Amino acid sequence: MTTDLEQLRSDLLASIDAAAGLDAVEALRVHALGKQGAITGLLKTLGGMSPEERQEQGPRIHGLREAVTAALAERKTSLERLALDARLAAETLDMTLPVDSVPAGSVHPVSQVMDELAEIFADLGFAVATGPEIEDDWHNFTALNIPESHPARAMHDTFYFPPEADGTQKHLLRTHTSPVQIRTMVKDKPPIRIIAPGRVYRSDSDATHTPMFHQIEGLVIDKGITLGHLKWTLETFLKAFFERDDIVLRLRPSYFPFTEPSAEVDVGYSVVNGKRVIGGSEGWMEVLGSGMVHPKVIAACGLDPNEWQGFAFGTGVDRLAMLKYGMDDLRAFFDGDLRWLRHYGFSALDVPTLSGGVGA
């Protein structure tokens, strides 16, 4: 019987190695290991053997089954790999085909508005500054004159990383792009004119708030800067962004730890067909926070507040996009719904320019 097992093993392994396709491999599996298979039949004979014969022949039969099973799996994997290689070689993409033959992508409204803002402020002499999204406590809070007791530092409003080994809280997801202003003032010498666009994170979620959103802040540090410079800059910016000359601003006294005095900026709107449209003064809508940079912030960055003054402002990019392009729910910005993107998205060739109109 030993000779018969060796011959069966040799024949089966040779047939498996020569199998030309997955169907042939499956047929060999059924022939060897199926209910009526050759090896299955040998396994059934073990019950009729004496203990001595079973002890001698059992390992040989089981070894034959394991060898054939491994050979079948290896040949199947090899054939599947060959089939995949052949399919990938056949599924080529002709890069010379006209672009009209494939679905067109679109630029997300947030990306478009970011470009519009950069274009407007570049014309006003502002550079674009960036910084890390994972910040430390000093840049995000302390240097901005935000006290330890301020609610913005609370766990329910800020995403903190786990404490350090010594128990101190060192890092967090930035809650605004103001740390970029601090880094710029520490690194560069005045005069400074920058905008700081980017993603920020706060623990909030509803129709007009999301845990991650986009913000743009502006900073000017120079000699002789006044609140009048701030108002003119914001007025010029909003007229260019909304592409209307009837933009009316209203500055309301407010409080921010990093500016003094501080002002909320409202823009006038009109009601057209039951909807609010920016422009006119039938009503007021808050769009910006702003103010003169606090002397303590200037001093924290190593500058003399008696020599240098400045103003800062900040607004949500997503909110500006909603106001300009008529979107109602901020959460749709992050849903990835292709129907929404096709409706509100922009062509890659819709490059904002002041001469052609930033909303072109």
Would you write up a description of this structure?
By secondary structure, the chain is an alpha+beta fold. The protein has two domains: 2-90; 109-344, Bira Bifunctional Protein, Domain 2 (BirA Bifunctional Protein, domain 2, 2-Layer Sandwich). The protein has eleven helices and ten strands. It has helices spanning 2-18, 22-33, 38-45, 51-90, 109-123, 137-140, 178-187, 227-242, 295-300, 317-325, 338-344; strands at residues 127-128, 134-136, 171-173, 192-201, 212-222, 249-256, 259-272, 275-278, 283-293, 309-316. Strands 1, 4, 5, 6, 7, 8, 9 and 10 form an eight-stranded mixed sheet that branches. Strands 2-3 form a two-stranded antiparallel sheet. A hairpin with a 2-residue loop joins strand 7 and strand 8. Helix 1 runs parallel beside helix 4 (51-90), helix 2 runs antiparallel to helix 4 and helix 3 runs antiparallel to helix 4. The longest helix has 40 residues, at 51-90. 28% of the residues are buried.
How do you describe this structure in short?
This protein is an alpha+beta fold and 360 residues long.
Keywords for this structure?
single chain; 360 residues; alpha+beta; BirA Bifunctional Protein, domain 2; 2 domains; eight-stranded mixed beta sheet; two-stranded antiparallel ribbon; 11 helices; nucleotide-binding; magnesium ion binding; Phe_tRNA_ligase_alpha1_bac; cytoplasm; EC 6.1.1.20
